[in-house]
Amino acid sequence: MMNPVGEAGSMQRASRDRGESQVQPVVIDRITFVSSGTPEADAAAETLRNRYGDVGLEAATAIVALGGDGLMLQTLHRTMERPIPVFGMNFGSVGFMMNSYASHGLTARLEAAKPTHIYPLQMDVIDAGDKRHEALALNEVSLYRATYQAAKIEIAVDEQVRLAELICDGVLVATPAGSTAYNLSAHGPILPIDSPLLALTPISPFRPRRWRGAILHNDARVRFRTLEGEKRPVNAVADNVEIRDVREVTIRERRDCRVTLLFDPGTSLEERVLSEQFRY
After folding, report:
1. Is the pLDDT of residue 205 over 50?
2. 169 known ligand binder
3. Of 36, 67, 171, 278, which is the most exposed, with the fewest CB atoms less than 10 Å away?
4. Which region ranges are annotated with the description Disordered (predicted)?
5. Are 172 and 105 in a shared domain?
């Protein structure tokens, strides 16, 4: 393993937890690199390791992810137990969560980078066999019909049934960060990245046909209960974790853990989400 080079840097970050602003220094002096495994990303990782060294995940104070948005999500999930800022460089298709690639000036970019904090959703599931499961999602928790039959789902918010029967292909709850992903494709609202909100969005609703979902406070606790489950089985997915044949799914935001993305100045996730709302 090579020794890292470069001077220790510091960065100020503003925390918006519950509307309170706190400034804390973040020291980034030990870097590790992860690659999506494509030839281009692997070659870039080798170049960067030769230039800056690689201390490994356990010792790192910053992760540089070389790939696309999928790699970024995988890397962020790996850092939930030990939060480490992640700076992405795009070697994927979209790269909505990534910065542009350059092999030079990385230490200075990390020092100047703007942090964005994302709080995950907790998915608690009871399946048809009464077995319990749980998973975390940074983008969204989604329910999907598992056969040709449309799903029938009851929706409750904070223990009050708000929709007794939604007939649909599925339904999802998205974080602000995930509101521009599958939620947007399902015609859900785009949420400002620092807003204390969640998007509740149906997927191809048949009845009630005109229902387009709801915007909820991030304190809300959402419960989905499948109806006629034996005839109309439903699967639940938290980012890339799928639970089959679910009976009940409860979703809430976790404020006791978070992940941190780093962006070059002027290209923050906040700016990208805002710009997305003016695309036509």
Report:
1. yes
2. yes
3. 278
4. 1-22
5. no
